[in-house]
Amino acid sequence: MAEAGTGFLEQLKSCIVWSWTYLWTVWFFIVLFLVYILRVPLKINDNLSTVSMFLNTLTPKFYVALTGTSSLISGLILIFEWWYFRKYGTSFIEQVSVSHLRPLLGGVDNNSSNNSNSSNGDSDSNRQSVSECKVWRNPLNLFRGAEYNRYTWVTGREPLTYYDMNLSAQDHQTFFTCDTDHLRPADAIMQKAWRERNPQARISAAHEALEINEIRSRVEVPLIASSTIWEIKLLPKCATAYILLAEEEATTIAEAEKLFKQALKAGDGCYRRSQQLQHHGSQYEAQHRRDTNVLVYIKRRLAMCARRLGRTREAVKMMRDLMKEFPLLSMFNIHENLLEALLELQAYADVQAVLAKYDDISLPKSATICYTAALLKARAVSDKFSPEAASRRGLSTAEMNAVEAIHRAVEFNPHVPKYLLEMKSLILPPEHILKRGDSEAIAYAFFHLAHWKRVEGALNLLHCTWEGTFRMIPYPLEKGHLFYPYPICTETADRELLPSFHEVSVYPKKELPFFILFTAGLCSFTAMLALLTHQFPELMGVFAKAMIDIFCSAELRDWNCGSIFMRVEDELEIPPAPQSQHFQN
């Protein structure tokens, strides 16, 4: 019985909510009808007559003060709403209405109203949405000392945000430190260096760690009772100190490459020693994991140095060897570095082979994978593509495949085409990116724009077809077409990752909330009324009285006049005049 009663109440509540949603006009007319029926008990006519008499006695100064105050208040609301919308991307009034007024009106969230089966079915999409909102390390990030700092010296602008650099510091602490660092003086110093916010303090700590390795320790080995032999032993060099200096102190790529080679020599030795001891305990295993991360990072950055210095084939070989030696370390996304280098060599067959391995439905996608696949398919038809000819004869099979690949790439990241078509200016890519966000689009276009320009007609094909993607995506973005729905968290994260002088690309383009438009119109209208009332008080007074007369019906005015005359007669006790005298007068 209890369950039946609960079900009946839920059904009744849903019917009421449905009626408020779709039958609000019927409710409105019902309310008006009730007001009309109850106009005598509620003394509506008397109240309206009193209000009309009061309004007729008001001076123009009152209207100036009223409209001026209304304009000021609505202007303040407009300024606050605009600031809140620019900062948080939503209207404050709408957010408060949805959060507090909707539950009072009986509105329920769609997610909470679903049954357990549907919630379990949507768990995969929710997890995917969370993973898509995760911030990733940019596999093509630049060198902080040789590239980012040089940009700051030339332009005076900071290309990296504090949030981005803080994420890098957390990555360094995760990859380059372990629990046994306090046992080695140099590693203990570097463990503190990665937490330093001041770049000069980090560089000084790295030099201090390297100076400790230059100190020689003497160990007494008693061979004979009357003598000793002094054995000279060098402490192992600190590879992470060389990494920090190569990243932040080196002012050129060549200097960074020299420091990374020294780091490779030290890191390879540490890796071989920890590899032999990794099965002796959990501490040795953690140290070996740290040394593996250090070695992979060094080799990857050396390959990037070779790519920057024009030795592209050498860089490709180093990346292939690294992927073969450590096939399970996919967190560095070395295949994206390899794709960019192969495109520079125009080895499109090798690019297709890499895509066949990593463009899999079970693997996470990226703008590099999706747009590189689109570039390869566009390359087959772009040189002969003509929109006029395609509109007359239709698209061929190869052209249809190219267009579908472009639509797939644009659906994954809709911000990239504006940078590839140079509709928006590029900036230096951040050290971290948000997949499907503006930061990932900048990182991709910064390195791959030259590859698209090299393929004849590819940008023309992109220009003619990329906007057609949005006709295929359901609106509003509750569902996707080929991928999961576009996450709503990208704008906030991109604003944290990208510098303030860059205008963040937002998708879907948010329209101004209703309350901003309403307050803007109200502020303008009341300000105009205040100005007109101040300049033309008599004319605006006549206009106000005319508006009052319009709102008051003729029948109501006659009734008001008769009631006033009757009250005057009662108060003065005037006897009623004869009928003949009345006509004579």
Give a short synopsis of this structure.
The protein is mainly α and 585 residues long.
Describe the structure.
By secondary structure, the protein is mainly alpha-helical. It is built from 29 helices and four strands. Helices cover 68% and strands 4% of the residues. Strand 2 and strand 3 form a beta hairpin. The protein is elongated, with a radius of gyration of 37 Å. The protein starts with a helix and ends with a helix. It is found in: Membrane. This is Suppressor of tumorigenicity 7 protein. The chain crosses the membrane at residues 20-42, 62-85. It is a multi-pass membrane protein.
| Beta strands, count | 4
* Residue fraction in strands: under 5%
- Helix proportion of residues, in percent? 55-70%
Q: Tell me the Rg in angstroms.
A: 37 Å
Specify the overall morphology.
elongated
Order of strands across the widest beta sheet? 1-4
Q: Name the assembly state.
A: single chain
Main beta-sheet annotation: 2 strands, antiparallel
**How many helices?**
29
Mean pLDDT: 75
The helix/strand class is mainly alpha
Protein name: Suppressor of tumorigenicity 7 protein
Transmembrane segments: 20-42, 62-85
Subcellular location: Membrane
Keywords: Glycoprotein, Membrane, Phosphoprotein, Transmembrane, Transmembrane helix
